[in-house]
Automatic annotation (TrEMBL), chain A:
The keyword Protein biosynthesis does not apply. Pfam families: Cytochrom_B_N_2. One of its GO terms (biological process) is respiratory electron transport chain. This is Cytochrome bc1 complex cytochrome b subunit. Residues 532-542 have a biased composition (Basic and acidic residues). Keywords: Cell membrane, Electron transport, Heme, Iron, Membrane, Metal-binding, Respiratory chain, Translocase, Transmembrane, Transmembrane helix, Transport. It catalyses: a quinol + 2 Fe(III)-[cytochrome c](out) = a quinone + 2 Fe(II)-[cytochrome c](out) + 2 H(+)(out). Residues 521-542 are annotated as: Disordered.
From TrEMBL, chain B:
Belongs to the Rieske iron-sulfur protein family. GO terms for cellular component: plasma membrane. Residues 278-344 form the Rieske domain. The lineage of its organism: Bacteria, Bacillati, Actinomycetota, Actinomycetes, Micromonosporales. It is found in: Cell membrane. Coiled coil: none annotated. This is Cytochrome bc1 complex Rieske iron-sulfur subunit. It is a multi-pass membrane protein. It comes from Catenuloplanes indicus. Pfam families: QcrA_N, Rieske. The chain crosses the membrane at residues 55-79, 91-115, 162-183. PROSITE patterns: RIESKE.
Length: 542, 361
């Protein structure tokens, strides 16, 4: 038998053919490799959330290997002397062990916590990006709803995880959660006793939260993230208006290799920043809080930042209970506690209203068209102003969640802080609406002014009649009135002289120039397509 | 620059004269992608390009050094907790974080520089196919409706009824064990009843329950100085643990003037009449708002502040809420001193303790 010589050059082709004959993947694979992504720095925000989620999964797996989700009372015997000999739950003791008696355990704990904060922050800022640019409009309403749900799931993932160590701070949070459940009319006490398996705290809540935190919620998150990304993939990214960009195309670069490689680099960067923060900045030092005891709490007990708005709303709520003097069912009347409004009703509204927003906006504006081009926030002042109204509401609620710390650090009366929050919650959002609306109109006005008159040059000219005027550099040939008639396209208008090519680009190089300075001002805009003949250096020969 | 130009004719990809880039471009074209601009950022072999290559290499080398440092710290640095301010083990986690952070950022920045500076810059345009195909939609819709027709539900009304009555109940079968298993009656007569605390004599074989401190020692009146306060627990088994989360109580020794006011206010109230002992009053520590232990007691104003949501209660007026979200006063524990001189609870709390809820009596 004669051995055939291996033709190395034919190997890739043969492998590809073999794979294609079995998996039928070659055409879809080429489509995937070639898929075009438009790029803008703000698109990175959602990816930061995704990358943080990956870090959460990685570090979370490590933590489950050492965590004991049990409320059994044990005596602590670990390395931390401050708590040695104390009675505590096994959950808290194992959290202490992860921090002190597992090599590298503390950094994993802190990475997990920092990644969780980063995850929520990235989600919120990503939502701002999507909202203020109108990226939620048709056909992306479903993905907006999935996104809001992801925020909600992240909120519960965070809360359940925060509760697991069963330390003094998280136990207080659980107690408040039980009070929130209790405040629901009619079903409150049933809800709380069903979740806690009896009266607070019982013996079941930590094991139950553990299953929710490591199994149920991550599974839901994974499924929804897959759906979220799948939809982005199918619908393709939105893009900013610009030269050559229409509602019907995507202008950017193909996924492989440059775009995908950049994403890989960004992932490592996010991972690195989380690792750095986890080492350098201490977070949730549970050993300082002690085990949870129903009789102990410290001042300045704040939840993680994404729960603070709720805590703030609860703090600001006046003591308005509703008493229902119905003496049926053996009771002496019924009551709706004030807690129900901020923690039950308002939270529901704050979840449902954003979910419905795309439908509401489409209904009010009558705009049912498909939008793949983004809008600059200034071009839709109503929406931008509404968004800022919501943001200011959220900020005041969040600050109020720490109003005792503010009062303490700035020597303000605590009661005054509460009143500032109560009044602020009512009057600041409308003010924010008005101010934002005017700013948007002003920015629009300025864009149009530049299009009509040109860029301000900073050169002041004195006219023969004594007036001083600023010289403008028109963007096109002006008519006899000195006006240019350029259409506003929804994209950046050049406002500085070097944006219209009045100055050459900066010369690269830190100590020494690494390129020759350009001789003449270059005009902006994309160079034309090179003819294929000049491209020989790009691909290697066959 | 539009998607329509340059409208090059489809090329034969088996043409040996084509460069690899031209074949790639043809593949992209078949995916409705037009590569309209593609050029290296630096001339190949130029000084600038070599500089970029050096930068990428440096980033990767930094990663190598930092990774080794991470491993070295991980293995050799003393990591077990040592007591003291600046012991070596205090720097274990920071060193791990900094070395790991530098290692990962080195990879990240290296890859980013490589991708952003060394790979050719391109502009491609892909069609979106925004307008869906109405004909195809009609065909899909009709196919689905045809399947419904074939089921013949319209012609066979008995099946419709059978589905409603026969199959609907099974829809909740999955939920029933899950939810049913969780439901727990909050009013059960178990130990953890919502209306009883550890001070109920039921839990002490019918005897009055002593007030004890966290370590279990009973409290005498002289243990609390005037103007002072301590947290007390029911003197029963596990009375000082979270099993009895509603039982922690604040025992306050009021000063003479305040005690007189507090006594007058208590006696004027139907429920709290005579619930104090001398200058001593006892209120539940569990805030009526959210259940946090309201424990910041301000001697001068006799106000009790809950640090969670800033509800404030006026102790000398039956612990009435005076500020913040709480609307219900703190329940007062009727106290007395037994024959051995220790504090006891005369009875359980007469009002519900803990956060407020719908059917509170």
């Amino acid at each position: 038998m004669k051995r055939r010589k291996l033709d190395l050059g034919a190997v890739p082709g043969n492998v590809a053919r073999g794979a294609d004959e079995r998996l039928q993947a070659s055409t879809p694979l080429r489509g995937l490799l070639n898929k075009v992504f438009p790029d803008h720095w703000s698109f990175l925000l959602g990816e930061i959330a995704l990358f943080s989620f990956v870090v959460l999964l990685l570090t979370g797996v490590f933590l489950t290997l050492f965590f004991d989700p049990s409320m059994r009372e044990v005596v602590y015997n670990g390395s931390y002397p401050g708590l040695r000999g104390q009675m505590m739950s096994a959950a808290y003791a194992s959290s202490l062990d992860i921090s002190f008696d597992v090599r590298g355990g503390l950094i994993m704990r802190q990475m997990h916590h920092w990644a969780a904060l980063m995850f929520m922050a990235a989600i919120v800022i990503h939502m701002f990006r999507v909202f203020f640019t109108g990226a939620f409009r048709k056909p992306r309403e479903t993905n907006w709803v999935i996104g809001v749900t992801l925020f909600l799931l992240g909120f519960f993932a965070g809360f359940t995880g925060y509760s697991l160590p069963d330390d003094g701070l998280s136990g207080t949070g659980l107690r408040i959660a039980s009070a929130i459940m209790l405040s629901f009319p009619v079903i409150g006490s049933w809800l709380s006793s069903s979740v806690f398996g009896g009266e607070f705290p019982g013996m079941l809540i930590i094991p139950r939260f553990f299953i929710a935190h490591v199994l149920i919620i991550p599974a839901l998150l994974l499924g929804l993230i897959a759906a979220h990304l799948g939809l982005v993939f199918a619908q393709k990214h939105t893009q900013w208006p610009g030269p050559g960009r229409t509602n019907e195309n995507v202008v950017g670069e193909r996924m492989f290799p440059r775009y995908a490689m950049k994403q890989g680099g960004f992932f490592m960067a996010v991972f690195g920043v989380i690792a750095f923060m986890a080492g350098a900045f201490q977070i949730n030092p549970i050993w300082l809080f002690g085990p949870y005891r129903a009789s102990e709490v410290s001042s300045a007990s704040q939840p993680d930042w994404y729960v603070m708005f709720m805590d703030g709303l609860v703090r600001l709520m006046p003591d308005w209970d509703i008493f229902i003097p119905l003496k049926i069912g053996g009771g002496e009347g019924y009551v709706i506690p004030p807690m129900f409004w901020p923690a039950g009703v308002l939270l529901g509204v704050l979840i449902v209203l954003p979910m419905l927003y795309p439908a509401i906006e489409a209904r009010l504006t009558g705009d049912k068209r498909i939008h793949n081009l983004l809008e600059r926030p200034r071009d839709n002042p109503h929406r931008t102003a509404l968004g800022m109204m919501a943001v200011s509401f959220y900020i005041i609620a969040t600050i109020s969640g720490g109003n005792d710390v503010v009062a303490d650090k700035f020597h303000i009366s605590l009661n005054a802080m509460t009143w500032v929050g109560r009044i602020g919650l009512l009057i600041v959002p409308p003010i924010a609406y008005w101010v934002t609306y005017r700013i948007c109109l002003g920015l629009q006005q300025h864009d149009r002014e530049v299009l009509a008159h040109g860029v301000e040059t900073g050169i002041i000219k004195r006219l023969p009649d004594g007036r001083f005027v600023e010289v403008h550099q028109p963007l096109a040939a002006p008519d006899e009135h000195g006006h240019t008639h350029l259409e506003y396209t929804g994209w950046v208008v050049p406002k500085k002289m070097n944006r219209v090519g009045a100055l050459g680009p900066a010369i690269k190089g830190f100590f020494f120039p690494i390129e020759k300075p350009v001789e003449a001002p270059v005009s902006p805009g994309h160079p034309p397509v090179d003819p294929a003949a000049k491209r020989e250096e790009v691909g290697s020969s066959h | 620059m539009s998607t329509k130009t340059p409208s090059t004719e489809a090329v034969d990809i088996n043409d040996p004269k084509l460069s690899r880039f031209e074949i790639i471009r043809e593949g992209a074209r078949r995916d409705d992608i037009e590569i309209v601009h593609y050029e290296p950022q630096f001339p190949p072999g130029s000084k600038a390009e070599k500089r970029m290559v050096r930068i990428v290499a440096t980033f990767f080398l930094i990663t190598g050094v930092a990774s080794l440092a991470f491993l070295g710290v991980f293995i050799f640095w003393p990591w077990e907790y040592e007591h003291g301010a600046y012991t070596l083990s205090k720097f274990y986690t920071p060193l791990l974080g900094v070395t790991l952070g530098i290692a990962l950022l080195g990879i990240g920045f290296g890859i980013l520089t490589w991708a952003k500076k060394l790979l050719p810059h391109e502009i491609s345009v892909q069609d979106r196919h925004v307008g869906t195909d109405p004909e195809s939609q009609k065909l899909t819709g009709e196919t689905a409706l045809y399947m419904l027709d074939e089921l013949g539900l319209k012609r066979r009304p008995l099946l419709k009824g059978a589905i409603g009555l026969g199959l609907a109940p099974v829809a909740v079968v999955a939920a029933a064990p899950l939810i049913g298993g969780l439901i727990k009656d909050p009013h059960g007569e178990e130990r953890q009843s919502m209306y009883k605390t550890g001070f109920n004599p039921v839990y002490n074989d019918g005897n009055l329950v002593r007030l004890v401190q966290l370590d279990g020692s009973p409290v005498r009146p002289e243990d609390v100085s005037a103007g002072g306060q301590i947290t007390v627990f029911p003197g029963i088994a596990h009375g000082n643990t979270n099993e009895w989360a509603d039982s922690p109580t604040l025992l306050i020794h009021l000063r003479e003037d305040d005690a007189r006011k507090a006594a007058a206010a208590a006696d004027a109230d139907e429920i709290n009449r005579g619930a104090y002992y001398g200058n001593y009053v006892a209120f539940t520590k569990i805030c009526s708002h959210a259940g946090c232990p309201a424990s910041l007691y301000e001697q001068q104003t006799n106000r009790l502040l809950c640090p969670c949501h800033q509800s404030q209660f006026l102790i000398i007026d039956n612990a009435r809420p005076v500020f913040g979200p709480a609307h219900k006063r703190l329940a007062m524990l009727p106290i007395d001193v037994d024959s051995e001189g220790f504090f006891v609870a005369k009875s359980d709390y007469k009002e519900t303790v803990g956060p407020d809820f719908w059917e509170r009596p």
